[in-house]
Amino acid sequence: MHIHILGICGTFMGSLAVLAKELGHRVTGSDANVYPPMSTQLEAQGIELMQGYDPAHLDPAPDLVVVGNALSRGNPAVEHVLNKGLPYVSGPQWLADHVLQGRWVMAVAGTHGKTTTTSMLAWVLEHAGMSPGFLIGGVPQNFGISARLGGTPFFVVEADEYDSAFFDKRSKFVHYRPRTAILNNLEFDHADIFPDLPAIERQFHHLVRTIPGEGLIIHPTTEPALVRVLEMGCWTPVQTTGEGGQWQVRLLSEDGSRFEVQFDGKVQGTVEWTLTGQHNVANALATLAAARHVGVVPELGIAALSAFRNVKRRMEKVAEVNGVTLYDDFAHHPTAIATTLDGLRKRVGEAPVIAIIEPRSNSMKLGAHRDGLPESVAQADQVIWYAPPNLGWDLAATAAACPVPAVVCDSLEAIIERVKGQARPGTEVVIMSNGGFGGLHGKLAKALEG
């Protein structure tokens, strides 16, 4: 069967393409922006990529068109599909029908940490010899690929609350019907499709309604929004993590790189790993709880976490030039920015930290997170905000409100000059964006060499 995917370089749709190819289909795809790491992964799989949304890409007609949620009415490829009466489906629906049917689905939902936690869980199962299938919105370094069918009934999926397609406004995760569900956290996000937090809570409750009575829901004790979701009705056993929960930790190092795990008051072992930050410690606890639900004893899970390598673009060290270290990070929400910088600060102590942030997500562009941004950068020594041409609000006012020195730059060249002028051996530079940021990482590394 020939499947053409519209929006194929999105992290979800790219992963879907890998699964379709593994099922034996001929897979092609098009996207407005073809860029790594997804483009690299897809080309390595022998999947043909086309730039833009030219209707000619759909001639001769494929057997099925999978439509990404970034596409809407008015898009030339979408209009062609509708006018020609081509069969089409949303990505989540295709996944549910062709991959998840009849499997033990383990879903990881929440505003933050989905990709990392999904990767951790897939790796813990793999380490335990359970050969899980998975679909992850990023490339986990333990696997080097973002999706696979796996060799057992277990399938780990990153469960996103974003909508499914222009014709299906339900959250993606309502299609997945998990038996084990991690609800990591819940804050307001996706201001382009949700008016407020209660609207997202309702979608999370739709997910809760689909989890069987013989399943398991795992959530931290510290998230009031998740408590509200479960108060709407819950028919599934629950395990809690964090303060006062069944799963707890005792930090053995302040940056979260070593911690002891306890379940029901009993010590299960110690995780020693390369990750930092309280958010990753929380992700680890949820992972161990979910893995235990499918039979992985905590001791084995802890051993796996100690060998876990983080996902690409999650505090990924991309270069070290003349003593200056560059990291690539996906953070695009004040909470994620704050927890990432906090973890780095605890690891590097007094070393100078420069944060470079591109407000690129839809919620960022709409200014939904504007008020939380100044405080989110408190752990950096200085911040460079990048003002993309289409930003609809005053970034200079945000920079002025930051508790640390902050400037706004409107070009990559200006950012590079600024960093070159400030960085000394020992400086840590974190580049935060949920896009390609115009290749800033490589350009900056090259400039620092000179």
TrEMBL record:
Residues 313-435 form the Mur ligase C-terminal domain. GO terms for biological process: cell division; cell wall organization; peptidoglycan biosynthetic process; peptidoglycan turnover; regulation of cell shape. GO terms for molecular function: ATP binding; UDP-N-acetylmuramate-L-alanyl-gamma-D-glutamyl-meso-2,6-diaminoheptanedioate ligase activity. It comes from the Bacteria. It catalyses: UDP-N-acetyl-alpha-D-muramate + L-alanyl-gamma-D-glutamyl-meso-2,6-diaminopimelate + ATP = UDP-N-acetyl-alpha-D-muramoyl-L-alanyl-gamma-D-glutamyl-meso-2,6-diaminopimelate + ADP + phosphate + H(+). Reutilizes the intact tripeptide L-alanyl-gamma-D-glutamyl-meso-diaminopimelate by linking it to UDP-N-acetylmuramate. ATP binds at residues 110-116. Its cofactor is Mg(2+). Pfam families: Mur_ligase, Mur_ligase_C, Mur_ligase_M. PANTHER family: UDP-N-ACETYLMURAMATE--L-ALANINE LIGASE-RELATED, UDP-N-ACETYLMURAMATE--L-ALANYL-GAMMA-D-GLUTAMYL-MESO-2,6-DIAMINOHEPTANDIOATE LIGASE. Keywords: ATP-binding, Cell cycle, Cell division, Cell shape, Cell wall biogenesis/degradation, Ligase, Magnesium, Nucleotide-binding, Peptidoglycan synthesis. It comes from Pseudomonas solani. Belongs to the MurCDEF family. Mpl subfamily. InterPro entries: Mpl (IPR005757), Mur-like_cat_sf (IPR036565), Mur_ligase_C (IPR004101), Mur_ligase_C_dom_sf (IPR036615), Mur_ligase_cen (IPR013221), Mur_ligase_N (IPR000713), MurCDEF_pg_biosynth (IPR050061). The gene is mpl. It is an enzyme of class 6 (ligase). This is UDP-N-acetylmuramate--L-alanyl-gamma-D-glutamyl-meso-2,6-diaminoheptandioate ligase.
